[in-house]
């Protein structure tokens, strides 16, 4: 069962096929309320308008990258506590540490499986619940 | 080779004479021999320089006439770009075609799943004799409708599966195209290595990692030393950071 099936999730990736895959996987996990953006510059104003409960973002995108989007989110008082899951091909240890320091909630490297996505989402919600 | 042996023999014989003269205390003859030795050495050096100059000259003229390099620059590189762009567009098409078929098939699966699990439950009640006659009439209507509908829906599913199957045909074509580009890159590489060899530039084998650009997907056998090898290592690293 999803933590909150109505939560609104923004999926940010420059490849439309990857957005479609994540959207379908999320729907299969019970999350039907999703929107898409193709980079940080498109995503940030959408997030700032409000209404989003969760952010799934790629790292390497033209325009604004995922790490910059993450920093912008953490730097915005309205968005600072938004849970962010990074799904990326960037696999260097320095980068994972960088994302952790920037305040990411979960980090998945591509290629990934549906089970990994579910596991990370569950873990993030578990932690958020524990903090409440 | 023969000339080298000749020079060596000349040097040895001069050296032997030099030792003999020195032992005999004949400094004048010894000095003459030292001059002679230096002359032989210089001749050899000039010959080597001459040989290198000729090789370099030949190589440069060869490259001038070498149609291959000019072909690479003017035709094959742009062709390779075009080919790789085509690979991107084919794989993109295949992914979209597959996703479209899956998105169309998924609701059919969900309907079939919901209807069959509902019927299954009712059938179990029927076999346990927990069902009234009136209820059974309703169930048998639902069952008939399910059997009719599912036949058509399974037919649709099969056609979506076929579509997914056909979308994989890109692999053969992109494989062939990429092989051609690999071959071309190898040719360019060989020509460049030759050029570097002739120019005598030392090649540093140490590869410099570019830290400005993002590394992107790791490729087996080319993985960066600092890259994790899978999701397990990401999780380990994050948990060591308190995640």
For the biggest β-sheet of chain A, the strand order reads 2-1-3-4-5
What is the rounded distance between the termini of chain B?
Answer: 70 Å
Main sheet characteristics of chain A = 5 strands, parallel
By secondary-structure content and strand pairing, the structural class of chain A works out as: alpha/beta
Strand content of chain B: under 5%
SS summary, helix count of chain B = 6
Strand content of chain A: 15-25%
Mean pLDDT of chain B: 85
The biggest beta sheet of chain B reads: none
Let me know the number of strands of chain B.
Answer: 0
Give the CA-CA distance, first to last residue of chain A. Answer: 20 Å
Q: Largest chain interface and its two residue counts?
A: A-B, 25 and 23 residues
Uncertain residue ranges of chain A: none
Shape of chain A, please?
globular
Rg for CA atoms of chain A: 13 Å
Helix content of chain A: 40-55%
Descriptors:
heterodimer; A: 132 residues; alpha/beta; 5-stranded parallel sheet; 46% helix; globular; B: 243 residues; mainly alpha; elongated
Structure write-up:
The complex is a heterodimer of chains A (132) and B (243). Chain A is an alpha/beta fold and 132 residues long. Chain A has 5 helices and 5 strands; from the N terminus they run E-H-E-H-E-H-E-H-E-H. Chain A has helices spanning 16-28, 40-49, 66-75, 93-102, 114-131; strands spanning 9-12, 34-37, 54-57, 84-88, 106-109. Chain A has a 5-stranded parallel sheet with strand order 2-1-3-4-5, sandwiched between helices. Chain A is globular, with a radius of gyration of 13 Å. The model of chain A has no long low-confidence stretch (mean pLDDT 94). With 243 residues, chain B is mostly helical. In chain B, 81% of the residues lie in helices and 0% in strands. In chain B, 3% of the residues are buried. The model of chain B has no long low-confidence stretch (mean pLDDT 85). At the A-B interface, helix 1, helix 4 and strand 5 of A face helix 3 and helix 6 of B.
């Amino acid at each position: 069962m999803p933590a909150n099936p109505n939560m609104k999730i923004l999926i940010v990736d420059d490849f439309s096929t990857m957005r479609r895959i994540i959207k379908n996987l999320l729907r299969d996990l019970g999350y039907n309320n999703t929107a898409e953006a193709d980079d940080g510059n498109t995503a940030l104003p959408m997030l700032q308008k409000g209404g989003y409960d969760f952010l799934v973002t790629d790292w390497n995108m033209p325009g604004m990258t995922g790490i910059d989007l993450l920093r912008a989110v953490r730097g915005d008082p309205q968005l600072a506590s938004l849970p962010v899951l990074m799904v990326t091909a960037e696999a260097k240890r320095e980068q994972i540490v960088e994302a952790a320091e920037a305040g990411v909630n979960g980090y998945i490297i591509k290629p990934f499986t549906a089970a990994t996505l579910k596991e990370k989402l569950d873990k993030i919600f578990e932690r958020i619940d524990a903090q409440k | 080779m023969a000339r080298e042996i000749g020079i060596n023999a000349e040097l040895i014989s001069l050296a032997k004479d030099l030792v003999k003269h020195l032992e005999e205390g004949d400094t004048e003859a010894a000095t003459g021999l030292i001059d002679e030795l230096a002359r032989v050495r210089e001749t050899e050096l000039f010959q080597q320089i001459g040989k290198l100059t000729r090789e370099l000259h030949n190589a440069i003229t060869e490259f001038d006439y070498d149609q291959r390099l000019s072909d690479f620059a003017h035709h094959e590189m742009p062709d390779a770009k075009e080919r790789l762009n085509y690979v991107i567009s084919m794989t993109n098409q295949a992914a979209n075609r597959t996703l479209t078929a899956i998105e169309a098939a998924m609701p059919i699966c969900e309907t079939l799943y919901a209807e069959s699990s509902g019927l299954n439950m009712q059938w179990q009640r029927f076999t346990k004799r927990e069902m009234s006659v009136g209820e059974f009439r309703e169930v048998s209507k639902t069952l008939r409708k399910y059997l009719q509908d599912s036949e058509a829906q399974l037919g649709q599913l099969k056609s979506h599966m076929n579509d997914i199957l056909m979308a994989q045909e890109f692999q053969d074509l992109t494989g062939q195209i990429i092989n051609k580009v690999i071959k071309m890159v190898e040719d360019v590489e060989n020509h460049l290595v030759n050029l570097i060899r002739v120019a005598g530039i030392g090649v540093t084998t140490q590869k410099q990692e570019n830290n400005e650009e993002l590394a992107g997907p790791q490729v087996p056998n080319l993985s960066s030393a600092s890259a994790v090898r899978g999701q397990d290592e990401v999780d380990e690293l994050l948990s060591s950071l308190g995640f």
